[in-house]
Write a structure and sequence with these properties.
The complex is a heterodimer of chains A (183) and B (692). Chain A contains 6 helices and no strands. In chain A, α1 (3-44) packs across α2 (46-55) and α4 (72-94) packs antiparallel against α6 (109-159). Chain A has helices at residues 3-44, 46-55, 57-65, 72-94, 99-107, 109-159. Chain B is of the alpha+beta class and 692 residues long. In chain B, α11 (334-342) packs across α14. The chains are: A mainly alpha (183), B alpha+beta (692).
């Protein structure tokens, strides 16, 4: 008798699992397509790819170094790093779009400094802003805790210890055992 | 309050002598009303009615009265007083006023009857029971006046219950007076003080207190015995105990037992035989007496004596030939009653000797109904009680030494409660259906069987219910509506109405002796009987185990009395309730509401307005709002607690707290700056800015 519901429940449970597997396989299937697409694109626009690959090295490094799931640090560093690369990318696109030109630019220390400095500013942004915001939020948390404590005290003062929900209450909401009723 | 009942026709007595009036001036005085003073130090023993003492009383206009100060355990005939006051007869002592006063000698309130002092001396004193008067004198001095009084009583639906030579008074010093006056009959329960000689056989078997209200036929019987005592020259019942007098009446018939060997001649013989007939249905009525007075001679039927069985039955070592005498003895030895039944001796005696099939049927039914309640403890007494009435349907209700008429049960119970005696036998009477079995076999036309059945049935239910407002206490008030409230808290007061009760409580509070709670089982039952509307809605609160409900029930009930009777302020009671207000206010969760309530109630308490106090505290809407607010507060507290705990957990790691948010902000800021840079650079590049 008891085994029947179990038997019935098995396909019901397996349905989402199958769906999850399908999603995972789709994700797994999508990544190689993207990779192949990226490689093909990189081959087609090889001068730009060389310039960006070398110029965006700090971002690539952060991509592997950032353990967070959201990868916000990559975005911070990457955005400014990209901004540092853009003038040289424009130069490449307008002043002879070739692999030689690309190598000429990346071998120019000034260009490398500009691109990496921009990435460094991104690092600084990430470090300083997150620290400042975290500190502000921490202080706000402390203040909020204090406010909650005060509000709870106010509630307990006005409505009695029964309001805490820690005492066994009767039908009318009064403590079954009423220690310290006068407060 | 004393109620004035005028009897203006009686001539005013001369004022006391000057010396006596000076003496009275020095005595302590109790004001009965505005114009009557009672002198507690000036007794008139001649006018005492048994335990009830008589005192001198004088009005402002110097008319002599006497006051009968009733005893608490002997319930006076308060309802009868109203009827009696309406009777205007020169042969009755005039009732001037009656009411409740504070009686300093016992520090209690007492019910007082004020009569005009027209009595003189008693006709019969001591144990004298034979006066040997001439028939003509008896006719002129006794018969005619008493008959006129009885006629007046009949018109008022009243019975005296105390007609006897010892309660007849006459002024003057001649051996045979010209005019007699009947004394008091209101200060004690009906016929309480009436000697057994003057009682019919049925009433003679009953305890004095439990005889119930006398009827006109009982008065006629007592009148007949009184005539016999006036005329007879010796007392054939002299030296006999009460029990023996009843047995003599049963064995020989009342007329023969009272007159003995005396032979009366003339017309009065018919009157005596007529009014002394033992069968109430054959006893002369007042109409027949009037016919006799008019000169027509009726011939009363001979008294039919109960037949004696040819063979006796042995009970408790004695031989019995008559069922009524046997029934009368049953309560003296209940174990022997069980023996009679178990051995089938009684049934065989009824079949073979008495040959009364109807009585046998009643006995068998009594045995059956008794056994239905089990044969455990109390079986013997129940069997004796049920068999007693089965054998003799005229027998009183006999149980564990109590002998009562149905009507007298209430006064007997009241007396037992006041004297703090065991009332369990009374509980058994109703719980074990003994009273009900008794009433179902009654055949007398002089018993209001329908009313008694409904009252006994109500008592049985009250005892089964048992909660405050019901129980044996309620039975007392339903069976004896005249009894004052028997609450211990009101033991110093004579409370007869809800208004009396609230006034008494106010007095108690003003004396600083406010009780923890005002209403107890007795006062609740009393109020429920007197005015159900002021208490029945609150009985549930009063019976609650929760203190605040009891207090609120008390307040609402007293407030209802105050409102219904449009009574003045009761600041004493209100202040007493203020002392209990914490318990009630604590039922509100909101402290702000409590404070506001306290202030509002305190304001009304200062005004003594119980109705407004109860109105505020019984605000259902406020209570619901408070409860709603409390639930909302609980929800808020719970949400805050959850938030606090979450914060607590997150703040515990101060290095990571807010970092992700910070990085998100940094990413956004960085993206915005990067976008600006890219756009600017692109713009400048494509517009061939000198920078490039």
């Amino acid at each position: 008798m008891a085994s029947k519901p179990k038997a019935k429940s098995t396909p019901a449970k397996s349905a989402p699992a199958v769906a999850g597997k399908k999603k995972k396989s789709a994700a797994k299937g999508g990544l190689p397509v993207f990779m192949v697409g990226s490689i093909v694109m990189a081959a087609v626009f090889l001068p730009s790819s060389v310039l960006l690959t070398i110029g965006m090295m700090p971002t690539i490094a952060v991509l592997f170094a950032d353990p967070s799931h959201a990868k916000t640090k990559v975005v911070t560093v990457g955005a400014l790093n990209l901004a540092g690369c853009v003038p040289f990318l424009l130069e490449l696109w307008t002043q002879g779009y070739s692999l030689d030109k690309s190598f000429t630019i990346v071998s120019d220390p000034k260009a490398i400094i500009v691109m990496y400095a921009a990435a460094a500013i991104g690092y600084i942004f990430d470090w300083s802003l997150s620290a400042i915001v975290a500190s502000v939020l921490y202080q706000r948390g402390i203040v909020r805790q204090e406010l909650i404590r005060k509000r709870q005290e106010e509630l307990a003062l006005r409505w009695g210890p029964e309001v805490t929900g820690q005492l066994p209450l009767d039908h009318y909401g009064f403590a079954v055992e009423q220690p310290g009723k006068d407060h | 309050m004393a109620e004035e009942t005028g009897q203006k026709q009686v001539q005013a007595q001369p004022a006391p002598e000057k010396t006596e009036s000076k003496k009275l001036e020095r005595m302590s005085v109790i004001k009965f009303s505005h114009d009557i003073d009672i002198y507690p130090d000036s007794r008139i023993p001649e006018y005492d009615v048994g335990e009830v003492k008589a005192y001198r009383a004088i009005s402002r206009d110097k008319v002599n009265y006497f006051a009968l100060v009733c005893e608490r355990h002997l319930v006076p005939r308060i309802r009868g007083a109203t009827a009696y006051a309406g009777v205007n007869n020169p042969f009755l002592v005039p009732l001037v006023a009656s009411g409740v006063i504070y009686w300093p000698p016992v520090n209690q309130q007492r019910f007082v009857l004020i009569y005009k002092d027209v009595l003189g001396k008693r006709l019969l004193r001591g144990n004298e029971q034979a006066l040997d008067w001439r028939q003509d004198d008896v006719m002129n001095i006794v018969v005619k006046p008493i008959i006129t009084a009885l006629l007046d009583f009949r018109n008022r639906d009243f019975a005296h219950g105390a007609i006897r030579p010892a309660n007849m008074f006459a002024s003057g010093h001649t051996p045979k007076p010209e005019k007699i006056v009947l004394g008091d009959c209101l200060s004690v329960p009906s016929s309480y003080d009436q000697p057994l000689l003057y009682q019919t056989i049925e009433r003679g078997m009953v305890a004095p207190l439990a005889r119930g209200e006398a009827t006109l036929t009982d008065d006629l019987y007592a009148f007949g015995v009184s005539l016999a005592v006036f005329m007879r020259s010796n007392d054939p019942l002299e030296g006999m105990s009460d029990d023996e007098v009843v047995r003599a009446k049963i064995e020989h018939g009342s007329y023969a037992a009272i007159t003995g060997k005396e032979r009366f001649k003339g017309s009065i013989l018919g009157l005596l035989r007529g009014v002394l007939h033992d069968d109430p249905t054959q006893r002369w009525t007042l109409e027949e007496v009037m016919v006799w007075m008019d000169g027509r001679r009726l011939s009363p039927k001979q008294s039919i004596k109960e037949e004696k069985a040819p063979r006796p039955i042995l009970f408790s070592g004695k031989k019995y030939f008559q069922m009524s005498l046997l029934a009368m003895s049953f309560d003296s030895n209940p174990p022997d009653v069980v023996r009679l039944i178990e051995s089938d001796e009684l049934q065989q005696w009824l079949i073979r000797s008495v040959e009364d099939d109807v009585a046998l049927e009643r006995v068998e039914m009594a045995i059956k109904t008794t056994r239905e309640k089990g044969t455990g403890p109390g079986y013997e007494d129940r069997l004796a009680a049920n068999l007693s009435v089965a054998l003799d349907t005229k027998a009183p209700l006999c149980y564990k030494g109590l002998r009562m008429t149905g009507d007298g049960t209430g006064k007997m119970m009241a007396e037992a409660i006041i004297q703090k005696r065991d009332i369990q036998p009374f509980v058994d009477l109703f719980a074990q259906n003994i009273a009900f079995n008794w009433i179902t076999v009654q055949e007398s036309q002089h018993i209001d069987i329908g009313s008694l059945i409904s009252r006994f049935d109500a008592c049985r239910n009250f005892i089964r219910h048992g909660k405050i407002g019901y129980g044996i206490e309620r039975c007392v008030y339903i069976l004896c509506p005249e009894v004052h409230c028997l609450s211990e808290k009101l033991s110093e007061y004579f409370v007869n109405t809800p208004e009396d009760m609230i006034n008494a409580f106010e007095d108690i509070c003003k004396k600083g002796r406010a009780p923890v709670l005002f209403l107890d089982r007795h006062s609740a039952a009393f109020l429920s009987m007197k005015d159900a509307k002021v208490i029945d809605s609150y009985l549930f609160d009063l019976a609650s185990h929760e203190e605040y409900k009891k207090i609120l029930g008390n307040l609402k009930c007293l407030a209802a009395i105050q409102k219904r009777s449009s009574m003045p302020a009761f600041p004493g009671i209100a202040q007493a309730f203020m002392g209990m207000m914490d318990v009630i206010c604590l039922r509100y969760h909101d402290r702000d509401v409590r404070e506001k309530l306290q202030k509002s109630v305190a304001r009304y308490a200062a005004e003594g307005d119980l109705a407004k106090m109860a109105g505020i505290l019984n605000n259902v809407e406020l209570l619901a709002r408070d409860m709603g607010g409390f639930k909302e507060a609980m929800r808020e507290f719970s949400t805050l607690k959850k938030e606090y705990n979450e914060l607590e957990t997150r703040l515990a790691d101060s290095t990571s707290f807010g970092r992700s948010t910070g990085r998100e902000i940094a990413a956004v800021v960085s993206s915005i700056i990067a976008a600006i840079i890219i756009l600017t650079t692109s713009f400048m590049f494509f517009t061939q800015s000198p920078t490039f």
